[in-house]
Amino acid sequence: MNRFWDKVLFTLNGCWDWQGGTTRGYGMFWLDSAMVKAHRVAFVLFYGITLECIEGLKLLHHCSRTCCVNPTHLYIGTQQDNMTDACLAGVMARKLTEDDIINMRQEYASGVLNQYELAAKYGVGQPKISEIINNKFWRHVKEPLTL
Ligand SMILES: [Zn+2]
Q: Which domain holds residue 64?
């Protein structure tokens, strides 16, 4: 999904501004021959879920900027008990194992994946990835020695 992140400008104030096409202020992205709001795509990529998972749910912006696609600036504005709960509960409750942490640091250090790709792969937020990589979290997990 590099095609997606290529259109995102990571601004200093924390907003991720969509640089592609917009409709009524919302970034739009072509996905599987359909136009999807870019912030919804960012949200599902980031948390490793599918668009079906958030179908019928409104994603609102904490920052009030509709062109922003930073998933951590988004929150679910309507609750529907039926279909989506299981899927979203999985996202929010996703637990990382120590093996995940070690793999993540190695993938990052070797340049295989960037922080956003890691976030999408492991289903956690990029700020958390950043903290893990910078050893603010999970400090007790020892990396295997590499020679
Ligand atoms: Zn924002």
A: 2-92
In the numeric block, which tokens belong to residue 7? Answer: 């259109």
Residues 22 and 67 in one domain: yes
The answer on 103 and 68 residing in a single domain is no
How remote is the CA of residue 146 from the centroid of ligand 1, in Å? 39
Task: Encode burial over 104-115: b for 16+ CB neighbours within 10 A, e otherwise.
Answer: bbebbeeeebeb
Using a CB cutoff of 5 Å, list residues around ligand 1, an ion: 15, 63, 65, 68, 70, 73
45-99 per-position pLDDT tens digit: 877 778 888 888 888 898 899 999 988 888 876 655 444 555 665 555 556 777 7
| 70 and 130 within one domain | no
Record the pTM: 0.60
